[in-house]
Backbone:
């Protein structure tokens, strides 16, 4: 095998556990998208263009609530904001790639892709687009296919509440929140956001509980005494 | 939203805008933050807190604004989620909400 071919297949091998772990969530996204009022095509379009699991789920939660589109976009942006940190950190490792390759690579910068790229760079292996896309393409292609399969199945379910499907998003989000628990100041931030969002939910009303509650948590994070910390950005999710 | 704007459903416009801001976060860190030598610690702390802060707001109201089956499910998930992996917690939580609703909580 030529060196670039074997690099590509090293990437494919790195993608396999991620593909397996993300599959249920990819299909769940499709099913919930239909449950929340998107068409099958819109569900596939969202997985193919956004390609960021947690934020896609957040988008769904808000689509169903008939919220102004700009608030949906803002919420997706907020959930994906961690990618700014990955991008800044990983950019230093992509020195070998010309600009257009970096532009392509960043589109596929999911949590597991970031983690694997950092790990590869730590082993002093130069990061090239062949390895990177060997990992990214299987994750991407299956993620989009899963949305389609999930959406087809989802449109067959006529009574989502009987199967608990309407309550899966809060459980999923709770899991994501717990996944961040090693971050400094996590508990005070979560308590502030939780109480803030509940207070806003009952006073100002939905959808403002999202931005106001999040603001409460972020303000608490800024007020906490800064901790000396390593500059690693630790990814937590298994899905894109 | 079921409106149509310039012949395209508003949902599709929303998805396209969400895709643009998402790509912006993925390319923007490299383009913008890498120009700074160091991020001020409080800004760094604020950025680090954003995902947990946003996601918490999507959980907390659904714990208190639904019935007791939903509140109990999230409480159980919170406790087991500290000890077991995300996917196992998710599967158990799914089973718990279906079971509790079936028994009529």
Residues:
């Amino acid at each position: 095998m030529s060196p670039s071919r074997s690099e590509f297949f090293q990437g494919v091998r790195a993608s396999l556990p991620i593909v397996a772990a993300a599959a249920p969530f990819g299909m769940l996204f499709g099913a919930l998208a239909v449950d929340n009022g998107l068409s099958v095509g819109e569900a596939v379009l969202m997985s193919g263009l956004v390609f960021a699991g947690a934020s896609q789920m957040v988008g769904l939660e808000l689509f169903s609530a008939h919220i102004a589109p700009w608030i949906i976009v803002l919420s997706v942006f907020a959930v994906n904001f961690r990618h700014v940190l990955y991008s800044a950190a990983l950019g230093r490792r992509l020195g070998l790639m010309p600009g257009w390759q970096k532009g392509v690579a960043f589109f596929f910068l999911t949590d597991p892709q970031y983690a694997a790229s950092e790990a590869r760079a730590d082993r002093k292996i130069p990061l090239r687009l062949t390895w990177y896309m060997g990992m990214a393409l299987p994750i991407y292609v299956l993620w989009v296919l899963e949305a389609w399969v999930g959406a087809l199945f989802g449109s067959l379910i006529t009574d989502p509440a009987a199967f608990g499907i309407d309550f899966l998003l809060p459980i999923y989000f709770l899991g994501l929140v717990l996944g961040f628990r090693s971050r400094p100041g996590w508990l005070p931030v979560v308590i502030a956001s939780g109480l803030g969002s509940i207070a806003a939910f009952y006073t100002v009303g939905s959808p403002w509980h999202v931005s106001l509650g999040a603001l409460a948590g972020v303000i608490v994070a800024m007020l906490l005494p800064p901790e000396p910390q390593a500059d690693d950005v630790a990814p937590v999710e298994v899905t894109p | 939203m079921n409106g149509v704007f310039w012949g395209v459903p508003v949902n599709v416009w929303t998805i396209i805008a969400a895709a643009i801001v998402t790509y912006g976060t993925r390319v923007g860190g490299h383009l913008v933050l890498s120009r700074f030598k160091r991020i001020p610690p409080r800004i760094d702390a604020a950025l680090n807190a954003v995902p947990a802060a946003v996601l918490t707001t999507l959980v907390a109201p659904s714990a208190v604004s639904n019935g007791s089956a939903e509140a109990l499910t999230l409480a159980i998930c919170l406790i087991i989620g500290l000890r077991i992996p995300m996917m196992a917690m998710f599967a158990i939580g799914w089973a718990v909400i279906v079971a509790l609703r079936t028994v009529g909580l």
